[in-house]
Amino acid sequence: MGRSRCFVAWALIVGSLLGAVGLKAQNQGPTGPELFAPASADLPTDSASLPNELLQANTRWVPARWADLPGFGLDTLSEAWNAWIKSCERPAAAFAPLCSEVRALSIADEPAQRAWMMARLQPYQVRARSGAVEGLLTAYYEPELSAARLPDAQFAVPLYQPPLGLAQRRPWYTRQEIDTSPMVRELLAGREIAYLADPVDALILQIQGSGRLRISAPDGSVQQVRLAYAGTNEQAYKSVGRWLLDQGAVRDASWPSIKNWVLRNPTRVNEMLWSNPRMVFFWEEPLPPADAVWGPRGAQGVALTPGRSIAVDPESIPFGTPVWLTTQGPTTNLQKLVFAQDAGAAITGPVRADYFAGWGRAAEELAGRMKQPVRLWVLWPKSGRAAERP
Fold first, then answer.
1. What is the pLDDT of residues 341-366, one digit of tens each?
2. Is residue 56 included in any domain, yes or no?
3. Which tens digit of pLDDT belongs to each residue from 152-162?
4. First vs last C-alpha separation in the chain
5. Looking at the 3D structure of the chain, how many domains does it have?
6. Residues with Cβ < 8 Å from 131, sequence gap 6 or more?
7. Secondary structure, 3-state, 301-335
8. What pLDDT digit, counting tens, does each position of 118-151 carry?
9. Long-range interactions of 243-248: CB distance < 8 A, separation 24+
10. Which helix or strand (DSSP H or E) is residue 118 part of?
11. Contact by Cβ (8 Å): 282, 159
């Protein structure tokens, strides 16, 4: 079908649906016990027969109706659409045929966007093979840190590019060996990007996978850059929070709690850091104003959108998939459209997501405390629009 005919077909479908849609977009969904209850009572009747259940790795995709998605009529879809357009820069095969329509809908109103989604996509609730519908939601962010191009009395913690010959030794040396062995430090000579003041900040930057640095040069100039993930030493990742819990040193493994322990135990900081043998290496990238409004590139290869991008296990949810996310907990309540655009070493299993919070203090606070139940629905192209199956 040519582009113009495709657009006409879309317009006819949306037009017929809009007559039945009387939704008013709101910024926030309900809070409290009703958060997981089916919402969107004003949605058009959806009485068509449901497709078959799909199996994906260790995950079950169970077909659902749009009315089963809590708060579907309440999300501000226009805030999510830019993230969808980003996914269309490198779309999965199943979604590529829809991208011209997604771009056209960027100037449409939210009822039209919602109606199009209902016409083109089929919701499936993501479940474990055991049938469990709830999983774990955490969050991550892009740290903003001050740094120096050369070491001095204040800034002495190096951040490295990948060492030459990294692939020739697998796994490479541990974090402790990198910090203490003169031979290993010699291998990293000349690979320093910049220096931080706090080794815990360096660890946080490595766990988050990217960050923004304000780098001071010897001449007094300051340059803002982004450090992007470039690889690891392929040592096993070990949680320093888990190490502290096992020691009985903290009651919870949130970053505020970890930082408080560090302040009270300065002589044991290296012991904590070395409990995680994994080291992350970075590439330095320029950060012009046009790029500063977006997050770093995720595993899908597109820039992340604060509040609309999540990291997933790609064995359970393919990159580029739109996902309906619902969570209720002590940190936040969310009902919103997000996109599977990233991955992470700790993000494994069927109902598991890591929410990209953005950058700045508010994002840091959210990421440091987020650990609560989540439910997910993938929104997959309907039969006939894309032959691909997950």
1. 999 988 999 999 999 999 999 999 99
2. no
3. 999 999 999 99
4. 24
5. 1
6. 60
7. CCECCCCCEEECCCCCCCCCCEEEEEEECCCCEEE
8. 999 999 999 999 999 999 999 999 999 999 999 9
9. 243/272, 243/275, 243/276, 244/272
10. helix 110-120
11. yes
Q: Please, where are the H alpha helices in 35-109?
A: 77-87, 99-104
Which of the two residues, 102 and 167, has the higher pLDDT score? 102
Q: Which residues contact 274 (CB under 8 A, 6 or more apart)?
A: 174, 175, 176, 179
Q: In this structure, is residue 9 part of a structural domain?
A: no
pLDDT level of residue 2 (50, 70, 90 thresholds)? very low
- Residue 220 belongs to a domain: yes
Matching residue, tokens 């969107």 = 40
Residue 19 is predicted with a pLDDT of 35
Domain of residue 259, CATH code: 2.40.240.50
Cα–Cα distance between 135 and 243 in angstroms, integer? 23
- Of all helices (H) and strands (E), which one includes residue 248? none
Residue with tokens 């001050």: 146
Residues 6+ apart with CB under 8 A from 196: 145, 146, 147, 155, 157, 159, 202, 205
Name residue 381's amino acid.
P
Residue-wise pLDDT tens digits, 229-279: 999 999 999 999 999 999 999 999 888 899 999 999 999 999 999 999 999
**Contact call for residues 95 and 320 (beta carbons, < 8 A):** yes
Boundaries of domain holding 251? 142-291
Cβ(147)–Cβ(160) below 8 Å:
no
pLDDT of residue 8: 37
DSSP state of 174: -
For residue 56, the model assigns a pLDDT of 87
Q: Is residue 65 part of a domain?
A: no
